[in-house]
Amino acid sequence: MWKKNQVEFEKPYVSAIIPAAGSASRMQGIDKLFEEILDIPVIIYTLSAFQQSDWIDEIVLVVRQGDIADMMALIKEFELTKVKSVLCGGSSRQQSVLAGLEAVSAQAEYIAVHDGDRPLVTQQIIADCVIDAVRYQACAAAVPVINTIKIADEDGLVECTPDRSKLYMVQTPQVFQAQLYRDAAAAAKDAGEDYTDDCQMIEKLGGRIHLSKGDYENIKLTTPVDLLTVQAIFLMREEEQG
């Protein structure tokens, strides 16, 4: 029996889908998932976080066709026993996640989706997202926006400045009650809609998303500069651990 804010509940069965089939077009030729930081590939940091989480029961990894053999070799080498399937992804992130959804266990009560190129996710973030999903049905890790945001037209002219206190940068993991997520995914597929964020599928059905506490260090590897930042944070964490 688990308790948060005096609410008790049984731990649910949670399946994690890790989409890692992107083209990495902004990485200037760097294969970010296999790039090593402190002698460990980026994707292994990501998978290990979910392997070590008491809240995650199984992992489905979705990758490019050409990466399947190498990924399976790494999974065996690092003894990632929770990885149940390694699948070929689709042409978009949403298609890759939906491919993973078809492979999760029938007993999954909640689905956690996390970007394969977010290796700095912590145990606390994963736990908070799962617990909040149990309470709210759908949640996503997020952090408040720090910089002032401008909305501009196609000519670059500012139209307005939204209230920063209401703006958040959404991260992953994003965790959803399984049937709610399946219904939203089916609706998006039937409508021919392709989203870059899983929460959008829930929002389209009128569902509400709870924002769980994320971390500014939980960044996504998008450019070579991000890789340098991730390396620095891992080095800092290693020094803090002694």
TrEMBL record:
Zinc-finger in keyword set = no
Segments traversing the membrane: none
Q: What residues does the record give for site: Positions MEP for the nucleophilic attack?
A: 164, 220
Could you name the domain of life of the organism this protein comes from? Bacteria
InterPro entries reported in the protein's UniProt record: IspD (IPR001228), IspD/TarI (IPR034683), IspD/TarI_cytidylyltransf_bact (IPR050088), Nucleotide-diphossugar_trans (IPR029044)
Metabolic or biological pathway, per its Swiss-Prot or TrEMBL entry: Isoprenoid biosynthesis; isopentenyl diphosphate biosynthesis via DXP pathway; isopentenyl diphosphate from 1-deoxy-D-xylulose 5-phosphate: step 2/6
**What keyword terms does UniProt attach to this protein?**
Isoprene biosynthesis, Nucleotidyltransferase, Transferase
Q: Which reaction does it catalyse?
A: 2-C-methyl-D-erythritol 4-phosphate + CTP + H(+) = 4-CDP-2-C-methyl-D-erythritol + diphosphate
Keyword Nucleotidyltransferase in annotation:
yes
Tell me the enzyme class: transferase
The EC designation for this entry is: 2.7.7.60
What NCBIfam families does the annotation carry?
ispD
Q: What is this protein called?
A: 2-C-methyl-D-erythritol 4-phosphate cytidylyltransferase
**Species annotation:** Youxingia wuxianensis
The primary gene name is ispD
